[in-house]
Design goal:
The chain is globular. The strands form 2 sheets. A 5-stranded parallel β-sheet has the order 2-1-3-6-7, with helices on one face. Strand 6, helix 5 and strand 7 form a beta-alpha-beta unit. It is 43% helix and 11% strand.
């Protein structure tokens, strides 16, 4: 006869053995910052950009699995100001076949003083982190540095700012900065332009996370990742 005590011991033992099995079945959260190990023989791709690019990094990797090794710096690449400070570090010593890059949303956001924290546009002490004329100067330097890598370059323009509720950015300024970027790129005709602004604009309300937020939901990131992967794949070296 199995006593109440022995039955309890059996249940405890079974639970103890089963717990690790159940723990192993949990899906680990994937990290876009996690370094990847290159698959030999595949071209190397570098994504440079802010949190919008962070949102689609994993989707781009999934779509280019077995086609290209897709890397990104383990950080938000922020504005052209921060880009100039860290570009050599982000490029590293390896050879890049394609570099897909963007700066803009952090340039046009309002800050106070030398802080990079977003500030309310209604605050009289706030100002754009990088005014558009300085943005053009910075972008010219960054594109020139990227060209030195010998990689095929893809400029991804800046996605739209919501028309209402964005406390730290002025609606319409993404288009203004995109036009300024195109003026810079006239000096660099080999740079491919990925017009993500036009891809997002018709779907902006459906893809937003919440009113006034420049970021996108999971469905949007899946669509953006597919789009960006297709643009990159066309630019990969032909076998």
């Amino acid at each position: 006869m199995v006593t109440l005590v022995s039955r309890s011991l059996i249940l405890l033992l079974v639970a103890g053995l089963a717990a690790p099995l159940f723990a192993e079945t949990k899906t680990a959260k994937r990290d876009p910052y996690e370094p990847i190990e290159d698959v030999a023989g595949l071209p190397r791709v570098l994504l440079l950009g802010d949190s919008i690019s962070i949102g689609y990094t994993l989707q781009v990797r999934d779509n280019l699995k077995g086609i290209a090794n897709v890397h990104r710096p383990p950080t938000n690449c922020s504005s052209t100001k921060q880009g100039l400070e860290h570009i050599d570090q982000w490029l590293g010593d390896g050879k890049w076949d394609v570099i897909h890059f963007n700066w803009g949303l952090h340039d046009l956001k309002h800050v106070k003083g030398e802080s990079s924290a977003i500030a309310d546009i209604r605050d009289p002490l706030s100002h754009m982190q990088v005014p558009v004329d300085q943005y053009m100067v910075n972008l010219e330097k960054l594109v020139t540095r990227l060209e030195e890598t010998g990689a095929t370059l893809i400029w991804r323009n800046t996605t739209p700012v919501p028309a209402e509720g964005s406390s730290g950015r002025i609606p319409g300024y993404a288009a203004k900065y995109n036009n300024a970027a195109l003026l810079v790129l006239k000096n660099h005709p080999d740079v491919i332009v990925d017009d993500l602004w036009s891809f997002v604009k018709p779907n902006q309300d459906m893809w937003k996370t919440k009113n006034g937020n420049v970021h996108f939901n999971a469905a949007a990131n899946e669509a953006l990742g597919k789009h960006v992967a297709e643009v990159i794949q066309k630019a990969l070296p032909k076998k």
